[in-house]
Structure formats: C-alpha cells, structure tokens
Amino acid sequence: MSEQKGKVRAGLMGGMIRVGFAGLLSMLLAACAGNSSLPLSEAQRAAADFDYVIGPGDTLEVFVWGNEELSSVGVVRPDGKFTTRLVEDLEASGKTSTQLARDIEQSYGEYVRQPVVSVIVNGFVGVPSQQVRVVGEAAQPASVPFRKHMTLLDLMIAVGGMTEFADGNGSVLVRTGDEGQKSYKLRLDDLLKDGDISANLALMPGDIVIISESWF
C-alpha cells in the first residue's frame, strides 16, 4: 500500500515539474516576444533591396567568352575562396556574381587580352546573414537561403512543417535590425492548421524562427 502511495506521489511530482517547466517556457517566450507587432513594410523594403551574395558551398560556373578552355565549374570552399583554371584562391564569399566576374577579369588580364567573364550561380547556399534559420520543433530544422518576397509559409514548406509536438502559436521570430534584436510572436498553428492566411508574413534575410515544444 505504501509502495502504491509512493508511485502516486512520484507521478504527481513529475506532473508538477512538467507543468512548472511549461509555465517557465511560456513566460520566457512571452517576455521575449512581448506585444510587438511585426513591421511588414520593413520586410517588404528589405526584399526590394535584396541582392544575393555568394557564400561557401555555392556552385559557380565561370564562362570566359572566346576562351572556352578557361571556363570552369566549381564550389566555393568553406573558407569562402574559389579556384579557376588560371587563378587560385580568389575571394568569392560576400560578393555578387557580377563583382566576382570583374575580379576574375582583372586577374585573367595578365594572361588573356581583354577577357570577358560571366559568373553564374547554380547552387545556392549563401552567407549566414542572407539565410533564414528554423530551429526547435520543425520537421526538418535547417538554414534556408533567403529568396526575394519569401514568406513564413514558404519557409515552413521548405522545412516540411512542424512536428506533432510543436506549439505553433507559442513560437517566435527573432529579427536583427538597426535598433538591435527584437522578437515577435508567431501564429503557426493558425497558419498551417487553420489556413488563416493573416498569420502569414514577409521574411527578411537573417530571420530566425524558433518553434517551441508543446508540454501538454
């Protein structure tokens, strides 16, 4: 009899601990998110000014007009550098494809008369500041390259939605702007489960989506 009472007491204590953790998490998320409303016009303005820059892991195709033997395809190394047929260790990360093409032309000018170079990006990874990250209870947590006019719904499709343990409406978006880092409440359950399109929003490069876990 005393053993049964001990099991009941242990179960109750475990339940209280879980409730305590859930309440603490809710308070932390509430404090983080506050009552801030997401500035949609700011995101739209960022999307309009968005220029993709090359990052480590991107696949590049270098085409040299009239000198096809110098054309090549390669991947930007983890150190951000890229090697062509004639030049080693060109700094590629953080540059647009046009900027890199001009750099290659300048380097090739030592070997080829008035080279004309085009750089095409075929595989997109991007630099961290131009990625959108999803962590927590996403089906496939990942860093996703930002795309112009990208929305929260696009991002959730890219990561396969949420797990069955996710608290979609308890999730937050963390955004870094001119005034520092701010957090905003998200309504992922309303968006993905109820089809409430008003819960959708425009994203910005560097956004982080934290999908919290449901404790009940």
From TrEMBL:
* One GO CC term, this protein: cell outer membrane
Q: Name one GO molecular function term.
A: polysaccharide transmembrane transporter activity
- List each copy of the SLBB domain by range: 130-211
Is Nuclease a UniProt keyword of this protein?
A: no
Q: What is its main location?
A: membrane
Which Pfam families does this one have?
Answer: Poly_export (PF02563), SLBB_2 (PF22461)
InterPro entries, sorted: PEP-CTERM_polysacc_export, Poly_export, Poly_export_N, SLBB_dom
Record keywords? Cell outer membrane, Ion transport, Lipoprotein, Membrane, Palmitate, Polysaccharide transport, Porin, Signal, Sugar transport, Transmembrane, Transmembrane beta strand, Transport
Q: Where in the cell is it found?
A: Cell outer membrane
The membrane topology term of the UniProt record is:
Multi-pass membrane protein
The Polysaccharide export protein N-terminal domain covers 48-121
- Similarity field: Belongs to the BexD/CtrA/VexA family.
- This chain belongs to the protein called Sugar ABC transporter substrate-binding protein
